[in-house]
Amino acid sequence: MTTSELQEFRQNYPFTYVDAGARWGPKSNLLTLFPSSKWVGFEPDPTECALVNSKAQAGWRCFPLALGPAHGSQPLYVTRSADWNSLYEPDPQVFSQFNGLEDFHYVEHQCQVPVTSLDKLAFSDPHLLGNADYLKLDVQGAEADVLQGAKTLLAKSLVAVEVEVEFLPLYKRQPLFDQIHAMMMDNGFLLFDLTRNRCIRSGFTADIETRGQLIWGDALYLKDFRSLLLEQTRYHKLLALLLVAKELGFPDYSLSVLDGMLTSGVANNNLGLEVYQAVTDLRMTQRRKTRLVDTVARVPYGRQLLRRLRQAIDNNYGRIVSLSYPEYYFRRG
After folding, report:
1. Residue 79 structural domain
2. Total-model pTM
3. In this structure, are strands 160-166 and 213-223 parallel, antiparallel, or unpaired?
4. Distance (Å, rounded) from C-alpha 276 to C-alpha 254?
5. Disulfide-capable partner of 105 in 95, 182, 213, 234 (CB 3.0 to 4.6 Å)?
């Protein structure tokens, strides 16, 4: 592999990003990382799906479908806040326990929506999904059902999965984090990151410091590269995994993937030099940021400025985050 071939791969690889719960359209740096990428979205609300398609770029397409374990139809519970629409019925007894969640569980009506599985779509249209690389799931409690219908893609194609998980059943009979984590581990994926969203109990005012209860989060799983090394035909998937890991903030895993490729003879030293150079460039960027902080700290009142900046970041990232009310209700971190 020449020193420019990794760059050529990045430019020309038809990276496929699958987005289940695509109401807001594509929002990922990975689509920029791979200029020839495709985005395939699924949004059961036909109005919202049409709106996404009206703004779509070349290679982006949204389908008015829900995803699940099999082909058919299911009732969609349409809630007062459309972000919380689900194939699972909201549990008002759980929602009502927490500040700021009380209004999200109200079901305004139900409607039948078409449901299909990712594996069925990939089989019927290999060009569309047969080479899927990244799967993002935000389907309000039905994530495990989507994964159940994507066993072939999980085993043969996907290199990364971003999935919303719950630690408390906001929806009746919904699978929780432990079941989803077990499914991902069984399919050869490793947990790399987990954002956490906490809620404060009803009746508790925000003027008293509390951590709140962990309710939901977003888990990021990357494919265990060792399973890809077993098949020489997965060379491009290894390169995609390597680049995705670096882009998402895990360059150490990129180097682990590279080391495995070199050790097994899948890649040569030219690729190794190119990847190490990319990681070195990243390290230099981080050092420049560190030098900037050191410079600011040396000027008068610099340390106080940095301390206040850090406090502001903590307030936005590790404290309570409000959704729609002037009071504070939610906490991340």
Report:
1. 5-223+317-332
2. 0.84
3. antiparallel
4. 9
5. 95
